[in-house]
Amino acid sequence: MIRPSGRQPDQLRPVTITRQYTCHAEGSVLVEFGNTKVICNASVEKGVPRFLRGEGKGWLTAEYGMLPRSTGSRMGREAARGKQGGRTVEIQRLIGRSLRAAVDLSKLGEYTVYVDCDVIQADGGTRTASITGACVAIADAFKKMQADGLVKDNPMKEMIASVSVGIYQGVPVLDLDYPEDSNAETDMNVIMTENGGFVEVQGTAEGETFSRQELNSMLELAEKGIAELSEMQKAALAG
Amino acid sequence: MIRPSGRQPDQLRPVTITRQYTCHAEGSVLVEFGNTKVICNASVEKGVPRFLRGEGKGWLTAEYGMLPRSTGSRMGREAARGKQGGRTVEIQRLIGRSLRAAVDLSKLGEYTVYVDCDVIQADGGTRTASITGACVAIADAFKKMQADGLVKDNPMKEMIASVSVGIYQGVPVLDLDYPEDSNAETDMNVIMTENGGFVEVQGTAEGETFSRQELNSMLELAEKGIAELSEMQKAALAG
Amino acid sequence: MIRPSGRQPDQLRPVTITRQYTCHAEGSVLVEFGNTKVICNASVEKGVPRFLRGEGKGWLTAEYGMLPRSTGSRMGREAARGKQGGRTVEIQRLIGRSLRAAVDLSKLGEYTVYVDCDVIQADGGTRTASITGACVAIADAFKKMQADGLVKDNPMKEMIASVSVGIYQGVPVLDLDYPEDSNAETDMNVIMTENGGFVEVQGTAEGETFSRQELNSMLELAEKGIAELSEMQKAALAG
Amino acid sequence: MIRPSGRQPDQLRPVTITRQYTCHAEGSVLVEFGNTKVICNASVEKGVPRFLRGEGKGWLTAEYGMLPRSTGSRMGREAARGKQGGRTVEIQRLIGRSLRAAVDLSKLGEYTVYVDCDVIQADGGTRTASITGACVAIADAFKKMQADGLVKDNPMKEMIASVSVGIYQGVPVLDLDYPEDSNAETDMNVIMTENGGFVEVQGTAEGETFSRQELNSMLELAEKGIAELSEMQKAALAG
Amino acid sequence: MIRPSGRQPDQLRPVTITRQYTCHAEGSVLVEFGNTKVICNASVEKGVPRFLRGEGKGWLTAEYGMLPRSTGSRMGREAARGKQGGRTVEIQRLIGRSLRAAVDLSKLGEYTVYVDCDVIQADGGTRTASITGACVAIADAFKKMQADGLVKDNPMKEMIASVSVGIYQGVPVLDLDYPEDSNAETDMNVIMTENGGFVEVQGTAEGETFSRQELNSMLELAEKGIAELSEMQKAALAG
Amino acid sequence: MIRPSGRQPDQLRPVTITRQYTCHAEGSVLVEFGNTKVICNASVEKGVPRFLRGEGKGWLTAEYGMLPRSTGSRMGREAARGKQGGRTVEIQRLIGRSLRAAVDLSKLGEYTVYVDCDVIQADGGTRTASITGACVAIADAFKKMQADGLVKDNPMKEMIASVSVGIYQGVPVLDLDYPEDSNAETDMNVIMTENGGFVEVQGTAEGETFSRQELNSMLELAEKGIAELSEMQKAALAG
User: What's the Enzyme Commission number for this chain (chains A, B, C, D, E, F) (predicted)?
Assistant: First the structure.
């Protein structure tokens, strides 16, 4: 089996994490997993949703979108159609839920962090790139909040990162690009902390079912990939 | 640790599967996982969505809803609010995707099966009960299609069933009810075929992350529970 | 003329009223008029709509829905289409308006009663069954409010019930089922109190117009049917 | 009892019916019932809704709207709020259903008549004025269709007209204006043909229930009023 | 070049401005530019939008609509389609923005003026007629506010009026009607104050581009036409 | 008067036009007017809207959006709110209308060009940057269409470009950035062809009205600025 990109089965695509990508957001990251490019902006606003008011805790929520022509053929603009599609809803709920697992909301005070992940070019793995980039963006936003005296302690508990794994032509592979993703037998998105705890595991059989052993192989690849991504996040934040 | 219901950690709630529950649908099942009660109707219609036309294959799609007072406090009616919530969208996509894995769409001909899962009473695990009951409903619909000469071979590849597992007060438990679900550290929904293949695994850390070992314990509980549910499905279909 | 069901012209279908049908709602009734089956849940919430705030009065409002496959062929789900259809709106306004006529809102305090009528199986007369069942559900909810000390006096002024009448093949008939309803020359829904006062009368010529005399005949049938339904409501509440 | 307007209990408001009110519609009428003013436009378009295609029959449908400041205080514009309110939906369904009873759709050919009733000033009775005026507008549209050779025979079976009746301060009154309507114990809208057949009867108890005898008194007033309105329609069409 | 209407290139259509056209609004004008007829209602309500609260200033906003059959062929009703079209949005933003330029909002107190421009018959130039008529309606509303003691000084700074100009068959013309508008090479809407200041200029090349010289010719026609319209507004307000 | 940026009154911001910015679209441009950055993608699809079918002509339409945090404070995502705001609608209509003026649709064949202008960072002038960048993107798309044999002749008639001008602190200035735009007395957007023809002129008085002489000064600045932008477009396309 040769991957369309020529990569080894356990090899990530080239990853870049560019901070301060746009000038207005408290944290702004362009994350690239190969040809997949996502702008991750973290915005801090005073106040929390109604269900949290008066509890002294903060909130974090995420929204996800794709530029209409981020993909091979143009998709209708969700704003023009008047609703977000099911896939969008599913992804933005995943991003928000995962990032909240990285944050100690009780240290955030009554602030809400809005994370916007907007895909400008898609080649598979947009949700895992989004989570990996967005975690750096919120790290920057938290630093700014500390510098501005809005919070005392850094609300980040542990950094998280995410990668996809799958079974492609019978072989477990790491970080699927679009040609692999659209032909994989099984596709799994894994989100872990920098210390190796699992935050979310979502595996789906696309055609054939998968076995316990295949699941294990995929989890091992994911652990390896996320460890590498965590190092890149650290390097980016140190840069 | 004592479960709120007094069950053993590896014990399912009482499960009942009532076929022919309503009179119009080609397959109609009331499934009960303890106090969780879901009507699963399978409707067969001629024709397929545009993207499949002319391919000689069928389609299956699912919709999910909760009666406004299926829950402890009343939720706004989605039809009145003018949109389905994110959780609803996520669940109905999961139900549809899983059931399609159970079906050989090429044997279905140009028919669409609409699966409607409507929760009339909720006590945790509505999505796993929905999938387990809906698979019986589509089995009935397929039998009717064969009897009516609409399809030649049964389009069902393998029956599927689903159960939730989680870590509750540090202990892996099977088939969480609402009091457990709302306090679990980790919650995982597993969907498998009657022959033990994995169709979907979705595990989420609610508070603390989970370890590889905890993941393994949960998967083992799920395998046990789904084997039992598969037997109940068979018994119901034989009844 | 022989009715499709073999009933006498002035004969109701078998009616059952099952209380405590689901476990969460303050009042929960499954009402069956023959094959028409409707879940009627009454939910009590603190607070009133803005236009009533500070007046010390309560409010009651109703919503109506049909499961997509409650009917012979599947109807699109209103939540998925993003709006309630005209028929739905018309029916839920009728249910709410009628039930408010049964209630002394000034005795309710600043509470809102939400009535949800969800049709799980339809065979004609869903709106009249809904009103008849929902009145029992709110009676239960009011009892619970009294028991919980939320209201002092029972806010129910008089029980109401409802039935349809029509001209079928030239003959006035009581409680039309679907085969009659879809072929009736005239269809009338009547809502009355247990003491014989009229709450609402809605008669519509479907094909030919109707005469004053036919109107009178239909009203007499309705008076008879509603008297019987009132007795069944009393029996159910006494049960 | 003295009516706010000083009218006799069985006296209509001054009614005017102005044809050719706007220049584009096939039939265009301004109808005035006292201070209630409604523009009724009938538009003829080739084609019928999907459910009627190929049957050689026509269709008629109605839409209703109120200018935001047709009323004492401004109502939000339905187009801006993104949906028609329940009252609007209920009224336009009534208008369409009633007018279809006046028309032999099989003589209309595969044309659709759109009736638009837009209230420019409201003082009670907008739905009855709309129906009365719209019937004249469709009569004009049918004449034009005959003149243009689109239909051979006039599709109008019988003209219809409509009026409201009610119990105001204990007295049955004809054609309620807004001060009466907002204080009536019972309000009933009656639609009849020029030959005295009933098309629709909708009576609602607003506070107290009404008796069979009060119902009869109201129906008699309605018969008298509609006979007068029918004469005015004839005079307008002859003018 | 002969204009379809036979007018001179610099000649307005017959213009009428009827005040107190409907009875409820604080200012109500029917404005006619030839066959274009628009009802302009100004409604005064206590309170301002959130972004202005507590600043002691008022607000003015406008909405625009067309009756479905105000045009040669029927347009779908925006309320029924569930959204306002792009053209509607563009026009109502223009009307509101222009009228705000006529008003000293700081003299208005915390009141909002809603301007509703509803086209009952269209023959080109509906937006310019709307602005010209609406300015008279708000003048009446301001007089009423002064009379009622709601404001001390008249909030009107300067009256504004509006007219369209264009290049039709190579010739600059004033106040285009529909036959001209739909064939013009260039179409420009100009809004000016009674004292000759420009409020808004919107010129669009429909087919060929226009030159600086053509732009100048059109502006001169507009200045002439608006001067005449300003006189008619004054006469109407003096009447 | 010193401009916040220190620029001369007739000086553009630094402008860059980056082609092939994303990899999927037929034409893809990142345009920067200072800190304003817009991705302009041109997508070519077979087929035309219904109103053009069978005429052998093509169509071009545009959509506009801003990333939620492209601005100083986060704006709600239009896709999540379920509708495009009035400003968005106004701008995308302007972009589409202007670009159609640049194109000979009869040379395009039955293809539709979708132009997507997505603002990733905003600092004033997003609509003028969008038009200027999008014209380069469609030029690239047309070249690709010619290379692929989809069209024979280049459908571009003349390139167009756009710039804003205004009166800032009494002085006419070119290409307003956000600090100027939000304080300008008058703001005007001008769109011209590379040969100096006017395509659209939209001038709005924000506070005080503007005079004919001020209008002339602004037009002269615009002519100068657009001539420079046209040169940059040519250079980019030659690059």
Answer: 2.7.7.56
* Alpha-carbon gap, residue D47 to B215, rounded angstroms: 61
β-bridge partners, D153? none
Q: Cβ distance B48 to B36 under 8 Å? A: no
Q: What is the pLDDT of residue A206?
A: 85
**What DSSP string describes E41-107?**
EEEEEE---GGGTTSS--EEEEEEEE-TTSSSSPPPPHHHHTS--HHHHHHHHHHHHHHHHHB-GGG
How many Å apart are CA E188 and CA E172, to the nearest integer? 10
> Bridge partners of E30?
E18, E39
**Which of C201, C219, C221, C230 to probe the D interface (max D CBs under 10 A)?**
C201
**Chain F residues with CB-CB distance to A79 below 8 A:** 65, 77-79, 83-84, 88
- Sheet containing F198-205: give its strands across: E171-174, E160-168, E186-193, E198-205, F198-205, F186-193, F160-168, F171-174
Which residues fall within 8 angstroms of residue B1, CB to CB, at 6 or more apart?
Answer: B9, B168, B169, B170, B171
SS3 of residue A128 by DSSP: helix
Backbone torsions φ then ψ of A178, nearest 5 degrees: -60, -45
Lowest average pLDDT, out of A80-84, B189-193, D134-138, goes to A80-84
Report whether A135 contacts A102 (CB < 8 A): yes
Which residue's entry shows tokens 């009343």?
A: B74
Question: How many angstroms from the chain centroid is the CA of residue A192?
Answer: 11
Q: What is the pLDDT of residue E206?
A: 85
pLDDT exceeds 90 at position F30: yes
Is the distance from CB of F102 to CB of F135 less than 8 angstroms?
Answer: yes
Contact A24 F78 (CB under 8 A): no
How far is it, in rounded angstroms, from Cα E135 to Cα E162?
10
CB contact under 8 A, D215 and C211: no
Q: What pLDDT, on a 0 to 100 scale, did the predictor assign at position F93? A: 96
Write out chain A residues lying below 8 Å of F73, CB-based: 43, 45
- The greatest distance separating any two alpha carbons of chain A, rounded to the nearest whole angstrom, comes to 57
Give a three-class secondary structure readout of C152-204.
CCCCECCCEEEEEEEEECCEEEECCCHHHHCCCCEEEEEEEECCCCEEEEEEE
Residue F214 is encoded by which pair of tokens?
């001020």
- Is E125 part of any known ligand binding site? yes
Q: Maximum distance among all alpha carbons in chain F?
A: 57
Distance, CA of A176 to chain centre: 14
In 3D space, the residue among C15, D91, A215 whose CA is nearest the CA of residue B192 turns out to be A215
Alpha helices in chain A (DSSP H): 78-81, 86-102, 126-147, 178-181, 212-238
Start-end of H helices in chain F: 78-81, 86-102, 126-147, 178-181, 212-238
Q: Which region among A157-161, A206-210, B216-220, D136-140 has the lowest average model confidence (pLDDT)?
A: A206-210
Distance CA B231, CA B219 (A): 19
Count of CB atoms within 10 A of residue F148's CB? 10
Q: Which residues pair with F45 in a beta bridge?
A: F112
* Alpha carbon distance E107, E151 (integer Å): 7
Q: How far apart are CA B85 and CA B2, in angstroms?
A: 34
* ipTM summary value: 0.95
Cα distance between residue E222 and residue E163, in whole Å = 6
Q: What is the pLDDT of residues C118-167, one digit of tens each?
A: 999 999 999 999 999 999 999 999 999 999 999 999 999 999 999 999 99
Say how many C-beta atoms besides its own lie within 10 A of residue C97's C-beta.
Answer: 18
